[in-house]
Amino acid sequence: MAEEVAHRLRAGGIAFIEAGTGTGKSLGYLIPLGAHLLDDDPEGRAVVATYTLPLQDQLLRHDVALAEKALGRALPVALAKGWGNYLCLLRLDHLARGQHDWLEGLAEEQPPRPAIDELIRWSEGAGDQGRAHAGTWSELPPGRWETVWALVAAEPDRCPRRRCPLYEACFYHAARRRMLESRLVLANQHLLLADLALRREADSGEAAVLPAFSYLVVDEAHHLEDVAVSHLGVELSSEAVLARLRRLTRGRSRLLGEPARAALAVLERLFYALRRGLERAAPGMATGMARTPGSVQHPARLTPGMAETLCGPALLGEAKEALEEVASQAEQLAQRMAGQEGDGEEGARSHAAADLVAVARWARRAARDLEAVTSAQAEGYVFWMEAASRAPGLVLRAAPLDVGPVLAAELFGAVRAAVLTSATLADGPAGFLPLRRRLGLASAGDAPAGDGPSSSPASPAPAPWAGEAQAEWDEDGALLRAVVGVSGAPPVVRREEALTECVIPSPFDFRSQALVAVPSDFPAPDRPGFVERLAELSLALAVELGGRLLVLFTSHRMMAETWKEMEALPAAGSLRVLVQGGASRTALLDAFREGRGEGMVLMGADSFWEGVDLPGPTLSCVVLARLPFPVPDHPLVRARAERISEQGGDPFWEECVPRAVTRFRQGFGRLIRTRQDRGAVVVADPRLLTRSYRHRFLDLLPRSSLIAGPAHRIVREVVEWTRPSLPSS
């Protein structure tokens, strides 16, 4: 991997590298990247962008040091975080003086003085600006800081920059100076794309976070398209808009009270009308969607003219005009304050003017976003509404259907070389071509969509595993044993003038370490009785294995139903069940890790499919509740499918299956983390045995052993398989 990265850094262009678990991906790019920056391009700078913050932290605290040891030299490195992660000393000073709410009244009561004093003491002790995390949220002492932090976090629209009297002591600007002095900047993909989106706005150049860079490494790159969609689209929350308008009506200055009250009244009527229209237009569309507190549900697609039909064109026009009036009044007040002279309070006026400019920019953006989503007319975008779980909350969204042109021109086109890597990038026989198309990096000579080996099969196989190599039935004919997945072959490398494609298999022996088990007597996940059978199977496995079980779901609703069914079973009392939502993700993983998984079952969805690292006997079995296909009724999924159909393709095979396979591989990857690990992945979805797409899932696994049979036999085989690795053995 290091050789391929080094070649692409010298030659320029793009490298796609799929590197299996245990490859050492971070060292595979950090060592050649450091050597190139130190030896070949002394003026160059590189950004490494991860998807998860834990990986970003691992790079900073551990992997960069290993790379420096290998290089024999120090590599100047800095950590990049967004504005809101840093304490603003000026806002803290105003909070301590009781001057923070002069324009916007508090949503909550004034924080208790002891909390403010503790924050001041912490800020004074965090003054070593040479530290990567100095003055950031992640270093706060234990406690509930959310309310206070919202009042003191740095914000680009509020920042007076060099005019600030505390500029030299500012944590954010110290971090930015460290980035400008560094050769390597560690960021995350959300910050990378937020930076790109900010630079695209003419008035937001100063708000950009990342310095100029020549080289880019994107780790966990299978997420990049979705991250780009979220940052290049629009999200307008009714709760956020109304909350800020209410704060403006309660501000002590009363400067914006009148226009804010007028806007609040109009926007409340608008969002109420849209919510009622949504409830009429999309009853019951939340099937399969998350239903946890604070989640959104009932996604309904917006088409041109639909919003006006729901609430009336006059009300939409009033809402936009009211927001524009707030912006206009704030701008006029800011100009008047900036023009005042001679009273010896320049600093206070500067801060007040900055607050007013921030409100003006926010109101103008809100009006612009409201117009964009409700008109639903922009070419190449899909528009929809989501009802928040607490009425009358509403979220308006717009998302680009194709982020490739922007990424190709403004991200990859702006660097000399880029490396995209992950354990799950390639798409079977189609290789990296589907991903390259989505990222705008397919060339004119590539096969058109729908051609080649990635097309759907003509018909499903006549019977499960008919003619499958190395497949055999047990003597009683109840249990099928097979070998699935790719072999541990040498890396596959394809080089062109400006493109490298490389697949490096995991060095682990999955055939002797990992068992894939599928209960053949389960109903399909959407059929009656599935949740009950899943709860029984999960509980039986946990009891026999002494806990050490992770169950992954594709919906919060199914997770809650399975948990409820498990609790009703007699054996559940011997286990501790940790469920996503009962505590933070970090707290749940820490509890499972500290208890070494003994007597524990961890249930999760969404983010638990990846980034969970529980090596050794702590985790012996992973249950995948169902194959992770995207929700078909979601407006973005449906719009993508329509576009593929218009282009003559098959949406299921070109869009749904590849995304599900990537997610499936990520879930499988939670089990084997070291050469010593041994365990089983139980896929409770019988479609993995019978549907024509089964090969697309199984062929992309590492070479592994598979069994299929009745659930009671699955439990017995899993226990026998994992027994050698259990602490009691």
UniProtKB/TrEMBL annotation:
Signal peptide: none annotated. InterPro entries: ATP-dep_Helicase_C, DinG/Rad3-like, Helic_SF1/SF2_ATP-bd_DinG/Rad3, P-loop_NTPase. Transmembrane segments: none annotated. Keywords: ATP-binding, Coiled coil, Helicase, Hydrolase, Nucleotide-binding. Its EC number is 3.6.4.12. Residues 1-274 form the Helicase ATP-binding domain. SMART domains: HELICc2 (SM00491). It is an enzyme of class 3 (hydrolase). It holds the Pfam family Helicase_C_2. GO terms for molecular function: DNA helicase activity; hydrolase activity. Gene3D superfamilies: P-loop containing nucleotide triphosphate hydrolases. Residues 444-468 are annotated as: Disordered. Residues 444-458 have a biased composition (Low complexity). Residues 316-343 form a coiled coil. Belongs to the helicase family. DinG subfamily. This is ATP-dependent DNA helicase.
